[in-house]
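Collaborator request, handled under Task 6.
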Amino acid sequence: MAGIINTEEIGKLGFGYMRLPRKGDAFDMELVKKMADTFLESGGTYFDAAFIYTGAEAALRESVIQRHPREKIQIATKLALSFVKDPKQFREQFNVSMDRLGTDYLDFYLLHGMDAESSDKAEDFGAWAFFSELKAKGLVRHIGFSFHAPPEELEEILSKHPETEFVQLQINYLDWDNPGIQSRKLYEIARKYNTPIVIMEPVKGGLLASDTSQITELLRSANPNASMASWALRYAAQLEGVFVTLSGMSTYEQLLDNINTFADLQPISDDEQAVLDKAAEILKAIPSITCTSCRYCVDSCPSLIHIPKMFDIYNNYLVYNTIGHLDSEYRMWTRSGGKAGDCTSCRACESICPQKLEIADKMTKISALFD
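C-alpha coordinates returned to the collaborator:
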Protein backbone atom coordinates (compact mmCIF):
# COMPACT_ATOMS: atom_id res chain seq x y z
CA MET A 1 0.00 0.00 0.00
CA ALA A 2 1.00 3.61 -0.47
CA GLY A 3 2.88 5.45 2.22
CA ILE A 4 2.19 8.88 3.65
CA ILE A 5 4.14 11.85 2.29
CA ASN A 6 5.00 14.40 4.96
CA THR A 7 3.99 17.47 2.97
CA GLU A 8 4.71 19.78 5.93
CA GLU A 9 8.44 19.33 5.25
CA ILE A 10 8.16 20.15 1.55
CA GLY A 11 8.07 23.66 0.06
CA LYS A 12 5.08 24.14 -2.23
CA LEU A 13 7.23 25.59 -5.04
CA GLY A 14 9.38 22.95 -6.73
CA PHE A 15 12.49 23.67 -8.80
CA GLY A 16 12.39 21.81 -12.12
CA TYR A 17 15.84 21.16 -13.60
CA MET A 18 14.72 20.69 -17.22
CA ARG A 19 15.19 24.32 -18.34
CA LEU A 20 18.29 25.54 -16.54
CA PRO A 21 20.06 28.74 -17.66
CA ARG A 22 22.74 28.22 -20.27
CA LYS A 23 26.00 29.83 -21.27
CA GLY A 24 26.41 28.70 -24.85
CA ASP A 25 25.63 24.99 -25.09
CA ALA A 26 26.46 24.27 -21.44
CA PHE A 27 24.60 25.13 -18.25
CA ASP A 28 25.66 28.34 -16.52
CA MET A 29 26.56 26.49 -13.33
CA GLU A 30 27.48 29.55 -11.28
CA LEU A 31 24.05 31.00 -11.97
CA VAL A 32 22.40 27.62 -11.31
CA LYS A 33 24.15 27.49 -7.91
CA LYS A 34 23.04 31.03 -7.09
CA MET A 35 19.45 30.19 -8.04
CA ALA A 36 19.49 26.96 -6.01
CA ASP A 37 20.87 28.77 -2.96
CA THR A 38 18.22 31.49 -3.17
CA PHE A 39 15.50 28.90 -3.68
CA LEU A 40 16.58 27.04 -0.54
CA GLU A 41 16.89 30.25 1.48
CA SER A 42 13.29 31.09 0.54
CA GLY A 43 12.01 27.80 1.95
CA GLY A 44 12.07 25.71 -1.21
CA THR A 45 13.13 22.08 -0.78
CA TYR A 46 11.96 20.02 -3.79
CA PHE A 47 14.15 19.51 -6.87
CA ASP A 48 12.95 17.62 -9.95
CA ALA A 49 15.15 16.00 -12.62
CA ALA A 50 14.95 13.00 -14.97
CA PHE A 51 17.21 10.44 -16.59
CA ILE A 52 16.47 11.90 -20.03
CA TYR A 53 16.92 15.59 -19.12
CA THR A 54 20.40 15.97 -20.56
CA GLY A 55 22.81 17.05 -17.83
CA ALA A 56 20.07 17.75 -15.26
CA GLU A 57 20.97 15.05 -12.73
CA ALA A 58 24.67 15.95 -12.77
CA ALA A 59 23.78 19.64 -12.46
CA LEU A 60 21.61 18.85 -9.46
CA ARG A 61 24.52 17.03 -7.81
CA GLU A 62 26.93 19.92 -8.42
CA SER A 63 24.58 22.76 -7.50
CA VAL A 64 22.66 21.25 -4.59
CA ILE A 65 23.49 17.77 -3.33
CA GLN A 66 27.22 18.40 -2.90
CA ARG A 67 26.66 21.81 -1.30
CA HIS A 68 23.69 21.44 1.07
CA PRO A 69 22.60 19.01 3.83
CA ARG A 70 20.93 16.07 2.11
CA GLU A 71 18.24 15.75 4.80
CA LYS A 72 17.05 19.32 4.11
CA ILE A 73 16.09 18.68 0.49
CA GLN A 74 13.93 16.33 -1.55
CA ILE A 75 15.30 14.88 -4.78
CA ALA A 76 12.99 13.54 -7.48
CA THR A 77 14.07 11.88 -10.69
CA LYS A 78 12.47 9.60 -13.25
CA LEU A 79 13.03 6.27 -14.97
CA ALA A 80 12.60 6.47 -18.75
CA LEU A 81 10.65 3.39 -19.82
CA SER A 82 11.18 4.33 -23.46
CA PHE A 83 14.89 3.53 -23.04
CA VAL A 84 14.27 0.12 -21.51
CA LYS A 85 14.46 -2.91 -23.81
CA ASP A 86 15.01 -5.52 -21.12
CA PRO A 87 13.95 -5.64 -17.42
CA LYS A 88 17.58 -5.72 -16.26
CA GLN A 89 17.95 -2.21 -17.65
CA PHE A 90 15.74 -0.87 -14.85
CA ARG A 91 18.55 -1.37 -12.36
CA GLU A 92 21.19 -0.15 -14.80
CA GLN A 93 19.29 3.08 -15.42
CA PHE A 94 18.60 3.59 -11.71
CA ASN A 95 22.31 3.14 -10.94
CA VAL A 96 23.26 5.68 -13.60
CA SER A 97 20.86 8.23 -12.10
CA MET A 98 22.23 7.61 -8.61
CA ASP A 99 25.81 8.03 -9.85
CA ARG A 100 24.94 11.25 -11.66
CA LEU A 101 23.15 12.61 -8.60
CA GLY A 102 25.76 11.47 -6.12
CA THR A 103 23.23 10.35 -3.52
CA ASP A 104 22.48 7.05 -1.84
CA TYR A 105 18.71 7.46 -1.82
CA LEU A 106 15.91 9.27 -3.67
CA ASP A 107 13.00 10.97 -1.99
CA PHE A 108 10.75 10.55 -5.04
CA TYR A 109 11.19 8.18 -7.98
CA LEU A 110 8.83 8.27 -10.94
CA LEU A 111 8.01 6.17 -13.97
CA HIS A 112 8.38 8.85 -16.61
CA GLY A 113 5.56 9.95 -18.95
CA MET A 114 3.18 7.04 -18.47
CA ASP A 115 0.64 6.31 -21.21
CA ALA A 116 -1.01 3.15 -22.51
CA GLU A 117 2.14 1.86 -24.24
CA SER A 118 4.54 2.55 -21.37
CA SER A 119 2.03 1.24 -18.85
CA ASP A 120 1.89 -2.06 -20.73
CA LYS A 121 5.69 -2.21 -20.74
CA ALA A 122 5.77 -1.47 -17.02
CA GLU A 123 3.43 -4.41 -16.43
CA ASP A 124 5.24 -6.81 -18.77
CA PHE A 125 8.72 -5.95 -17.46
CA GLY A 126 7.85 -5.80 -13.76
CA ALA A 127 8.59 -2.11 -13.23
CA TRP A 128 6.21 -1.80 -10.29
CA ALA A 129 7.82 -4.72 -8.49
CA PHE A 130 11.23 -3.14 -9.12
CA PHE A 131 10.05 0.17 -7.66
CA SER A 132 8.60 -1.58 -4.62
CA GLU A 133 11.90 -3.40 -4.15
CA LEU A 134 13.80 -0.10 -4.21
CA LYS A 135 11.47 1.30 -1.58
CA ALA A 136 11.76 -1.79 0.63
CA LYS A 137 15.56 -1.44 0.54
CA GLY A 138 15.40 2.25 1.50
CA LEU A 139 16.85 3.40 -1.80
CA VAL A 140 13.62 5.25 -2.65
CA ARG A 141 11.23 6.81 -0.15
CA HIS A 142 8.18 7.44 -2.35
CA ILE A 143 7.18 5.93 -5.71
CA GLY A 144 4.90 7.38 -8.36
CA PHE A 145 4.71 8.37 -12.00
CA SER A 146 4.31 11.32 -14.34
CA PHE A 147 1.50 11.13 -16.84
CA HIS A 148 0.76 12.33 -20.40
CA ALA A 149 -2.30 10.45 -21.64
CA PRO A 150 -6.13 10.36 -21.51
CA PRO A 151 -7.92 10.22 -18.13
CA GLU A 152 -9.17 6.66 -18.65
CA GLU A 153 -5.60 5.39 -18.66
CA LEU A 154 -4.79 7.30 -15.47
CA GLU A 155 -7.73 5.65 -13.73
CA GLU A 156 -6.63 2.23 -14.93
CA ILE A 157 -3.12 2.68 -13.52
CA LEU A 158 -4.28 4.08 -10.18
CA SER A 159 -6.90 1.34 -9.74
CA LYS A 160 -4.36 -1.35 -10.55
CA HIS A 161 -1.54 0.07 -8.42
CA PRO A 162 -2.60 1.27 -4.97
CA GLU A 163 1.11 1.36 -4.08
CA THR A 164 1.29 4.62 -6.06
CA GLU A 165 2.13 7.34 -3.54
CA PHE A 166 1.88 10.38 -5.81
CA VAL A 167 1.27 11.36 -9.42
CA GLN A 168 2.70 14.19 -11.52
CA LEU A 169 0.14 15.84 -13.81
CA GLN A 170 0.12 18.68 -16.35
CA ILE A 171 -2.30 21.24 -14.94
CA ASN A 172 -2.76 24.88 -15.89
CA TYR A 173 -5.70 27.18 -16.55
CA LEU A 174 -5.47 26.80 -20.33
CA ASP A 175 -5.38 22.98 -20.31
CA TRP A 176 -8.03 22.61 -17.58
CA ASP A 177 -10.76 21.99 -20.16
CA ASN A 178 -8.51 21.39 -23.18
CA PRO A 179 -9.86 18.22 -24.88
CA GLY A 180 -6.31 17.20 -25.77
CA ILE A 181 -4.96 17.41 -22.21
CA GLN A 182 -8.09 17.21 -20.01
CA SER A 183 -6.38 18.51 -16.89
CA ARG A 184 -9.67 18.78 -14.99
CA LYS A 185 -10.52 15.10 -15.48
CA LEU A 186 -6.99 14.01 -14.63
CA TYR A 187 -7.12 16.05 -11.44
CA GLU A 188 -10.54 14.65 -10.50
CA ILE A 189 -9.33 11.07 -10.95
CA ALA A 190 -6.28 11.67 -8.78
CA ARG A 191 -8.55 13.14 -6.10
CA LYS A 192 -10.92 10.17 -6.42
CA TYR A 193 -8.04 7.86 -5.46
CA ASN A 194 -6.77 10.32 -2.84
CA THR A 195 -3.41 10.40 -4.62
CA PRO A 196 -1.19 13.41 -3.78
CA ILE A 197 -0.36 15.54 -6.82
CA VAL A 198 2.77 17.20 -8.16
CA ILE A 199 1.91 19.72 -10.85
CA MET A 200 4.09 20.11 -13.93
CA GLU A 201 3.75 22.73 -16.67
CA PRO A 202 1.71 25.20 -14.57
CA VAL A 203 2.88 27.98 -16.91
CA LYS A 204 2.89 25.64 -19.94
CA GLY A 205 6.64 25.66 -20.48
CA GLY A 206 6.83 29.39 -19.80
CA LEU A 207 4.27 30.26 -22.46
CA LEU A 208 1.67 31.49 -19.96
CA ALA A 209 4.36 33.78 -18.54
CA SER A 210 4.86 35.65 -21.80
CA ASP A 211 4.72 39.44 -21.66
CA THR A 212 3.93 39.59 -25.39
CA SER A 213 0.90 37.31 -25.45
CA GLN A 214 -2.53 38.39 -26.63
CA ILE A 215 -3.77 38.02 -23.03
CA THR A 216 -1.12 40.26 -21.47
CA GLU A 217 -3.25 43.42 -21.59
CA LEU A 218 -6.24 41.59 -20.12
CA LEU A 219 -4.29 40.24 -17.14
CA ARG A 220 -2.42 43.50 -16.58
CA SER A 221 -5.64 45.50 -16.54
CA ALA A 222 -7.05 43.12 -13.92
CA ASN A 223 -3.94 43.39 -11.71
CA PRO A 224 -1.12 45.70 -12.85
CA ASN A 225 1.18 44.43 -10.10
CA ALA A 226 0.89 40.72 -10.90
CA SER A 227 3.28 38.98 -13.28
CA MET A 228 1.89 36.76 -16.02
CA ALA A 229 3.46 33.72 -14.36
CA SER A 230 1.92 34.48 -10.97
CA TRP A 231 -1.60 34.07 -12.35
CA ALA A 232 -0.81 30.58 -13.64
CA LEU A 233 1.13 29.46 -10.56
CA ARG A 234 -1.56 30.61 -8.14
CA TYR A 235 -4.22 28.83 -10.20
CA ALA A 236 -2.34 25.54 -10.04
CA ALA A 237 -0.99 25.68 -6.49
CA GLN A 238 -4.38 26.46 -4.90
CA LEU A 239 -5.88 23.11 -5.91
CA GLU A 240 -6.64 20.75 -3.05
CA GLY A 241 -4.36 17.71 -2.93
CA VAL A 242 -1.41 19.47 -4.63
CA PHE A 243 1.72 19.37 -2.51
CA VAL A 244 4.30 20.68 -5.03
CA THR A 245 3.97 22.93 -8.07
CA LEU A 246 7.02 22.66 -10.32
CA SER A 247 8.53 25.57 -12.22
CA GLY A 248 11.37 25.17 -14.69
CA MET A 249 13.16 28.46 -14.05
CA SER A 250 15.76 29.69 -16.54
CA THR A 251 16.63 33.11 -15.10
CA TYR A 252 17.24 34.56 -11.66
CA GLU A 253 14.39 37.02 -12.26
CA GLN A 254 11.94 34.19 -12.89
CA LEU A 255 13.06 32.56 -9.65
CA LEU A 256 12.54 35.74 -7.63
CA ASP A 257 9.12 36.31 -9.19
CA ASN A 258 8.03 32.75 -8.35
CA ILE A 259 9.37 33.01 -4.80
CA ASN A 260 7.41 36.22 -4.37
CA THR A 261 4.24 34.51 -5.60
CA PHE A 262 4.59 31.63 -3.14
CA ALA A 263 5.67 33.80 -0.22
CA ASP A 264 2.08 34.97 0.20
CA LEU A 265 0.14 32.47 -1.87
CA GLN A 266 -3.42 33.64 -2.37
CA PRO A 267 -6.23 31.57 -3.92
CA ILE A 268 -7.78 32.75 -7.16
CA SER A 269 -10.91 34.79 -6.42
CA ASP A 270 -14.15 34.42 -8.39
CA ASP A 271 -13.43 37.68 -10.22
CA GLU A 272 -9.92 36.52 -11.07
CA GLN A 273 -11.25 33.18 -12.28
CA ALA A 274 -13.54 35.04 -14.68
CA VAL A 275 -10.47 36.86 -16.03
CA LEU A 276 -8.60 33.57 -16.52
CA ASP A 277 -11.62 32.04 -18.25
CA LYS A 278 -11.62 34.97 -20.66
CA ALA A 279 -7.86 34.62 -21.19
CA ALA A 280 -8.27 30.94 -22.05
CA GLU A 281 -11.02 31.79 -24.54
CA ILE A 282 -8.76 34.32 -26.26
CA LEU A 283 -5.86 31.89 -26.55
CA LYS A 284 -8.02 29.03 -27.80
CA ALA A 285 -9.53 31.25 -30.53
CA ILE A 286 -6.15 32.02 -32.14
CA PRO A 287 -5.82 30.18 -35.50
CA SER A 288 -3.27 27.37 -35.59
CA ILE A 289 -2.06 24.64 -37.93
CA THR A 290 -4.77 21.98 -37.97
CA CYS A 291 -2.48 18.96 -37.75
CA THR A 292 -4.12 15.83 -36.30
CA SER A 293 -0.82 14.01 -35.59
CA CYS A 294 -1.69 11.06 -37.81
CA ARG A 295 2.07 10.82 -38.59
CA TYR A 296 1.63 9.74 -42.20
CA CYS A 297 4.03 12.55 -43.05
CA VAL A 298 6.73 11.27 -40.68
CA ASP A 299 6.81 7.86 -42.34
CA SER A 300 7.32 9.48 -45.75
CA CYS A 301 9.92 12.11 -44.73
CA PRO A 302 13.44 11.39 -46.06
CA SER A 303 14.89 13.76 -43.43
CA LEU A 304 13.06 11.98 -40.57
CA ILE A 305 11.55 15.24 -39.29
CA HIS A 306 9.03 14.89 -36.45
CA ILE A 307 6.58 17.05 -38.40
CA PRO A 308 3.59 16.94 -35.99
CA LYS A 309 5.87 17.96 -33.11
CA MET A 310 7.28 20.80 -35.22
CA PHE A 311 3.68 21.96 -35.73
CA ASP A 312 2.93 21.70 -32.00
CA ILE A 313 5.90 23.94 -31.25
CA TYR A 314 5.00 26.41 -33.98
CA ASN A 315 1.37 26.54 -32.87
CA ASN A 316 2.52 27.46 -29.38
CA TYR A 317 4.64 30.23 -30.88
CA LEU A 318 1.63 31.55 -32.80
CA VAL A 319 -0.58 31.51 -29.71
CA TYR A 320 1.83 33.04 -27.21
CA ASN A 321 3.93 35.20 -29.55
CA THR A 322 7.14 34.11 -27.88
CA ILE A 323 9.73 31.38 -28.29
CA GLY A 324 9.83 31.08 -24.50
CA HIS A 325 11.12 27.59 -23.72
CA LEU A 326 10.08 26.24 -27.09
CA ASP A 327 13.71 26.22 -28.20
CA SER A 328 14.55 23.51 -25.66
CA GLU A 329 11.56 21.45 -26.82
CA TYR A 330 12.72 21.93 -30.40
CA ARG A 331 16.22 20.73 -29.50
CA MET A 332 14.76 17.65 -27.83
CA TRP A 333 12.74 16.61 -30.88
CA THR A 334 15.55 17.32 -33.34
CA ARG A 335 17.99 15.12 -31.45
CA SER A 336 16.09 12.05 -32.65
CA GLY A 337 15.05 13.45 -36.02
CA GLY A 338 15.73 16.10 -38.61
CA LYS A 339 15.51 19.85 -38.09
CA ALA A 340 12.90 21.91 -39.88
CA GLY A 341 15.72 23.30 -42.01
CA ASP A 342 16.52 19.78 -43.21
CA CYS A 343 13.29 19.79 -45.22
CA THR A 344 14.15 19.31 -48.92
CA SER A 345 10.72 20.47 -50.14
CA CYS A 346 10.21 17.12 -51.82
CA ARG A 347 6.56 17.42 -50.70
CA ALA A 348 6.11 13.66 -50.37
CA CYS A 349 4.45 14.43 -47.04
CA GLU A 350 1.97 16.82 -48.61
CA SER A 351 0.76 14.25 -51.11
CA ILE A 352 -0.49 11.98 -48.30
CA CYS A 353 -1.51 14.57 -45.68
CA PRO A 354 -5.25 14.10 -44.93
CA GLN A 355 -5.47 17.78 -43.91
CA LYS A 356 -3.81 18.95 -47.16
CA LEU A 357 -1.36 21.10 -45.21
CA GLU A 358 1.42 23.04 -46.97
CA ILE A 359 4.04 21.34 -44.87
CA ALA A 360 7.20 22.41 -46.72
CA ASP A 361 6.28 26.09 -46.49
CA LYS A 362 5.59 25.72 -42.76
CA MET A 363 8.99 24.04 -42.26
CA THR A 364 10.66 27.11 -43.79
CA LYS A 365 8.95 29.37 -41.24
CA ILE A 366 9.77 27.06 -38.33
CA SER A 367 13.40 26.83 -39.43
CA ALA A 368 13.69 30.62 -39.50
CA LEU A 369 12.64 30.71 -35.83
CA PHE A 370 14.53 27.79 -34.35
CA ASP A 371 17.47 26.66 -36.52
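The cover message to the collaborator said: "The chain has two domains: 7-278, 296-370. Residues 7-278 form a domain with the TIM Barrel fold (CATH 3.20.20.100). Please let us know whether this matches your experimental observations."
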